[in-house]
């Protein structure tokens, strides 16, 4: 009976993987054998593959976030559905933009860092116009990672992620060498909303740094790193 149950689970995982790869609307946005910790930008239907495993963004289950420019009693949340396939298992799970933003399975952590854009009152967007920023990390890969706060001096002095190095975004290109980071080393930049971190990431990638993660802000980092 135990053998039959295991065989059935493996068969289901194989069939799901086959269906995902044959679906015409899906897009394989990256394939790599090296994971450790990596950022992915995904829309519905996108698939990323690593180490013989795959992650697919299935659908937006619900989006109750407060529309941009509108005052709301609650900020609401967006709930997103994913499936993670390995050669021996299939794990379906949801992530949302509030408290349930991180999911762990075996030795992998999936962290939803942001989901954009915000809804706009009077405008209906199709699901593929939204983008989820995910960090997928192997267990232990973020323990000693360098974290850079790219906000102003005042913002940093008021509050910052524990252990973060401070380099304002307009100085990042000139001062990144102070940290002696290898060009292929994983490190994280963050700010207040992710916008300045995104600019820092673009500048650093133009300089040849290949694995810069946009950690968005303090709250998202604490959830990911907890």
Automatic annotation (TrEMBL):
The keyword DNA repair does not apply. Residues 141-214 form the Rhodanese domain. Residues 1-23 form the signal peptide. SMART domains: RHOD (SM00450). SUPFAM superfamilies: Rhodanese/Cell cycle control phosphatase (SSF52821). Keywords: Signal. It comes from the Bacteria. This is Rhodanese-like domain-containing protein. It comes from Kangiella aquimarina.
